[in-house]
Amino acid sequence: MSELNRLTIAEARDALAKGETTAVELTEACLSAIEGSAALNAFVHNTPDRAREMARAADARIKAGEAAPMTGIPVGVKDLFCVRDVPSQSASRILDGFRPQYESTVTGNLWGQGAVMLGKLNQDEFGMGSSTENSVYGPTVNPWKLDDGVNRTAGGSSGGSAAAVAAGLCLGAAATDTGGSIRQPAAFTGTVGLRPTYGRVSRWGVIAYASSLDQAGPIARTVRDAAIMLGAMASVDPRDSTSADRPVPDYEAALTGDIRGKRIGIPREYRIEGLSDEIDALWSRTADMLRDAGAEIVDISLPHAQYALPAYYVIAPAEASSNLARYDGVRYGRRAKLGAGDGVVEMYEKTRAEGFGPEVKRRVMIGTYVLSAGFYDAYYNRARKVRALIKQDFDRAYAGGIDAILAPTTPSAAFPLGSMDKGDPVEMYLNDVFTVTLNLAGLPGISVPVALDAQGLPLGMQLIGRPWEEGALLNLAQAVESAAGFDAKPSRWW
Predict the structure, then answer these.
(1) Domain that residue 127 falls in
(2) What residues are annotated to the active site?
């Protein structure tokens, strides 16, 4: 079989079962693709020896008739998942040299099913960013490049994961989504990105950014692949106090293709000022696709959605300032060189000053400020109240019989690297305008590639589902995928 690294997970699984290829051959195809992808800067810690060993074990498992859905499938892992004895830095200088002696639940679940680890993938430092430019490894480049030769962002913070899947470096990738970090990169790269309900996938062993918002999920080439991968990643985990005690359904079995009678909400508040005519038209066209497949399209109101972005950028930095306080140079990771007379306070200050990048410092300072005496009620408590109102808006919509909500994933296609004004971080934060609402509400969401824009860059649309109903959400997403017929791939230039 040619271009094994370009197979979908479902295609590769079937080929392995039929004996048309082996896990070793699949893995070698991906390793070869990774070796030639330095210009993308997607993989940052390669594990070829481990990958070959895992592939041989997967082939033995398949031969013995003990294969699981992910057995023999080569995947990449975002750098904030702790993998035993593999560098896990969350793209930060402050965790330089950190090799955890334990395995995150998500990666442990994947390896337990027989998936093959190719290496760790680039990201924004600690997940803080929308372009994978805030990384100690340097930015990831989107494999989609136009004739203008300009390097564009692969999105963030899971830009390395999305770029690797889009470029055929791996068949799927484990990523995380705090404010859109799975869905936005997926939209920018023409891939599928699924953010499950908060608590569906364990956060144990995932380097934390904002604990009440972080959630792991897959980036893949198709909706079916996302369903297969989520089934392997999700589990009930007693080590994670936020893990929901709910059985994990067969998500692939939920892909019936029948969405007749489903009611899809179109929130009027998402038609924001400055939304491009192209994305607005694509939004309407996607609604027509769902209508033609038998769904009912309903206008709805989410009145507090307009406050989601400011609320998110109070709550997330507040939680980050608490989570990142542990990085002080005492126990593990980087420690600054100290001068004569320096004490423990100076060690903290110097280590954090040289270990954290500018965006992380900015958010830690914002978070510390909004949690400080005199400002806690004015900012953090108020943001928490807004969060509760946003969740109530969604609850009312779903109580009114809405099955899912359709909206754009991003306000634009992928933008050139370095084009956002570094003097005004709010310009970058606006990329999350359509994605942060469901993180605040703890809901599942999926981005599906629908079309290319006038320039030839991918555009994605987002479906927001009912809590714990990822199967129904995936089925709706597959209806969009089938109707859109998006099969474009980036031309290889790297």
Answers:
(1) 4-261+465-484
(2) 78, 157, 181
